UniProtKB/TrEMBL annotation:
The chain crosses the membrane at residues 26-45, 74-94, 100-117, 148-168, 376-400, 420-438, 468-485, 497-517. This is FUSC family protein. It comes from the Bacteria. Keywords: Cell membrane, Membrane, Transmembrane, Transmembrane helix. It is a multi-pass membrane protein. It comes from Streptomyces nigra. Residues 573-593, 691-725 are annotated as: Disordered. Residues 574-593, 693-707 have a biased composition (Basic and acidic residues). Residues 386-509 form the Integral membrane bound transporter domain. It is found in: Cell membrane. InterPro entries: Memb_transporter_dom (IPR049453). Pfam families: FUSC_2 (PF13515). Belongs to the YccS/YhfK family. The keyword Transmembrane applies.
Length: 725
């Protein structure tokens, strides 16, 4: 993608309205916390303290809207504490550039490395950098700095207390994650009615698994319904895929296919009802026709063989879903107390036990090629350079430039540029609106407090609809806040616009100077996915060879690792498609073909998993041999993909040929068919990434010319129908 096309995509993305469910009650509660803090400090102390308190309350309230599975009150308290600490430490070093700039650089670097823990930690940490830049201008002594830090922390406490006293949809995010997982499987069943080989995006199941991890204190209060249905969705997905597949399930045409479509439609109806029940905590009705379809008539059932086995297993699983939908989850399995059966819980470390986890995560990213490390370096450099440049401009409030940079910067190119565009657009509109109000109302502290609180509430409400729209009201909130402190609008409005533009430009320039492109990493991401899929397929075969509990645990662990690798590839691939750099190692067409091949390989392994026997297998040695060959060849092929060599599947072909000549021919037809599909998918993968000797020897310039010609041809034509997976 050229820079011109990339920037056009950035502008569209930055100004895009996200179709998401608004949460006005959460926004109202956060705005109420801000109003209480501002009103109390205005009444009891002064506008300057009110500004500090508003900073803490606003940022703590905003932090609770970030995606986190920890209680919102804990997030609010953590954000308030971080803001207070950065304020006080920043004041201790303020006054002299020789002390403040190194501290600012170190603090910004640590804030950037917080992305190693997750996006919520990275976003909250960035706000502490902004707090350090703003609040060092307020205190005049160490004592007053402590007072301002305490007032900022009090803003976080106020938000946490309101969350405790007025809970809004307690466990709501967890309910939504689990309901989305069930709804995703329901949608998958509907698509299988028309496309028996339709793909499935495992992201909702991965999100539900993240939400299922709890601390011991959360486990004691978690609603029973959140404990079991996730496993139900996991078990239903491969069964519906096996039922719909014409090669190993229902026949492609005839009464068997009609029966399969009826069952799939009933699956979708029941799972949607269960999802509604979990989301709202109330019983949901299932159509009587769906319940009738789920009755298997032993005498008149038209499905036979593996398809009938899948149908019977499906009816058994949907009985649990019907129970959830009909009772609102009240009869779902209750959580086991911690310590009695800890293995049944996905454990989330407490805040104190999280420290070594954070250390390990940060240490893992401390390398030059890490996107998180490069983001931290950019953040530190831009914060200090922006502060120095703005301090020498004939403008007040120079901290706005580095704050704008810090708040828009992300570890990847597209989001950084899109947020920079969105912040500038939102700032222009928000400042214009606030200016008109301030000119009409004046700069009285009490009068300015009212529109400030309203603007903050609107910013919270639009938080998830698009950064530009929430930033519009955030900019208005800042103007009103400064008006509350006695700042004239003529002094703040032009400065904020110019310095926001400067900060956004610095953030964009930093990514050009020190980028972290995902495009060169695509072969490595593909190799990781290939190796993980190979281990998963091998684990499935070992479960067929010896269906023991240990092998089932290994199979589940390998499946989760395969999903993580696929998610990492998908994220990198989407980022690479938006980057203004030429392909390095994989062209767009090669990446798409390789992706489709690996999806088919994983799907074949999933279908094989759905038919793992419950008793001893009759072809243990052959399955074990194919498992060893698959694991060895995919591991070697992963190294070949990283080094741009052509993969080879000699051991897999030999093992499969030997198995076909012995027990496989009289064993399970499902295993035979899916093993053949796995081999065919691996061959297609090798075709996608293979190079001729001449192609392997060409220089980067020749490769780039070839890629540009390919992209031009794609732009002139309709494009592949399967693009985007």
């Amino acid at each position: 993608m050229t820079w011109l096309r990339a920037f056009g995509e950035v502008v569209r993305s930055g100004l895009k309205i996200e179709e998401t469910r608004l949460e006005p009650l959460l926004a109202l509660r956060a705005a109420a916390g801000l109003a209480i803090v501002i009103g109390a400090t205005l009444w009891l102390v002064s506008p300057a303290y009110a500004a500090s308190a508003a900073l803490g309350a606003y940022s703590a309230g905003g932090a609770t809207f970030q995606r986190s599975w920890r209680p919102r009150k804990v997030v609010a308290l953590g954000a308030g504490a971080g803001l207070a600490l950065s304020t006080f430490v920043g004041y201790l070093a303020a006054g002299r550039l020789v002390t403040f700039l190194p501290l600012l650089a170190l603090w910004a670097f640590v804030a950037g490395m917080a992305w190693a823990v997750g996006s919520t930690a990275g976003i909250v940490a960035a706000t502490t950098v902004g707090s350090m830049l703003v609040t060092i201008t307020l205190p005049t002594s160490v004592g007053r700095a402590l007072e301002h830090a305490g007032v900022i922390a009090l803003g976080g406490v106020a938000q946490a207390v309101l969350i405790l006293l007025f809970p809004v949809r307690r466990w709501g995010a967890h309910r939504d994650a689990l309901a989305d997982a069930l709804a995703a499987v329901a949608d998958y069943a509907r698509r299988l009615r028309h496309d028996p080989t339709a793909p499935f995006d495992p992201e909702p199941l991965m999100t539900a698994r993240d939400a299922a991890a709890v601390t011991p204190s959360q486990a004691r209060t978690r609603p029973p319904v959140l404990h079991g249905p996730r496993g139900l969705a996991e078990r239903i997905r491969p069964v519906v895929a096996a039922l719909a597949d014409p090669d190993v399930g229902a026949p492609a045409e005839g009464p068997g296919r009609d029966r399969a479509r009826e069952l799939l439609d009933a699956v979708a109806d029941v799972l949607d009802a269960a999802a509604r029940s979990i989301r709202h905590g109330t019983p949901a009705e299932v159509r009587p026709e769906s319940a009738d379809v789920l009755r298997v008539d032993e005498e008149h059932e038209v499905l036979e063989g593996p398809a009938r086995q899948a149908a019977e297993r499906l009816v058994e699983l949907l009985g649990e879903a019907l129970d959830i939908a009909g009772t609102g989850g009240a009869r779902a399995e209750a959580p086991t107390p911690p310590g009695l059966a800890g293995a049944r819980f996905l454990v989330r470390p407490t805040l104190f036990k999280l420290v070594p986890v954070v250390v390990v995560a940060v240490r893992r990213e401390l390398r030059r090629d890490s996107p998180v490390f490069r983001h931290a370096v950019r953040l530190a450099a831009v914060a200090t350079v922006g502060y120095l440049i703005a301090a020498r401009l004939p403008l007040g409030h120079g901290y706005w430039a580095p704050i704008a940079s810090v708040m828009v910067m992300r570890p990847d190119f597209h989001r950084t540029y899109a947020r920079a565009v969105a912040r500038l657009a939102g700032t222009l509109v928000g400042v214009a609106l606030a200016t008109g109000v301030v000119r009409a109302w004046g700069t009285d502290a009490h009068l300015s407090a009212v529109p400030a609180i309203v603007s903050a509430g609107l910013s919270y409400t639009l938080n998830r609809t698009g950064y530009a729209y929430s930033q519009c009201f955030t900019a208005a909130y800042v103007v009103f806040l400064l008006g509350m402190g006695g700042q004239a609008w003529e002094q703040t409005v032009p400065e904020r616009v110019v310095l926001t533009l400067l900060g956004g430009a610095l953030a964009m320039l930093a990514y050009v100077v020190y980028p972290a492109w995902e495009t060169p990493r695509l072969p490595g991401r593909l190799a990781d996915w290939l190796a993980a899929d190979g281990r998963y397929a091998a684990a499935v075969l070992r479960s067929h060879a010896r269906p023991t509990r240990e092998h089932r645990v290994d199979m589940r662990r390998a499946l989760l690792a395969s999903r993580d690798a696929q998610a990492a590839w998908q994220k990198a691939y989407e980022q690479a498609r938006r980057e203004p750099v030429g392909p390095r190692g994989l062209t767009s067409r090669e990446a798409e073909d390789a992706q489709e091949a690996l999806k088919r390989f994983g799907r074949a392994a999933m279908l094989m998993e759905s038919h793992v026997p419950r008793a001893d297998s009759r072809f243990a040695s052959e399955a074990e041999r194919l498992a060893e060959a698959l694991e060895a060849d995919t591991e070697q092929a992963a190294e070949d993909v990283r080094e741009h060599r052509n993969p080879d599947w000699g051991r897999v072909e030999e093992a499969l040929h030997a198995w076909q000549g012995s027990a496989l021919g009289t064993g399970s037809p499902v295993v035979r068919r899916e093993a053949e599909l796995e081999k065919r998918a691996l061959e297609d993968l090798a075709t996608a990434v293979s190079r001729t000797p001449l192609e392997r020897d060409v220089g980067p310039a020749r490769e780039e010319q070839r890629v540009r010609a390919t992209l031009a041809a794609e732009d002139d034509g309709p494009g592949p129908a399967h693009r985007g997976g």
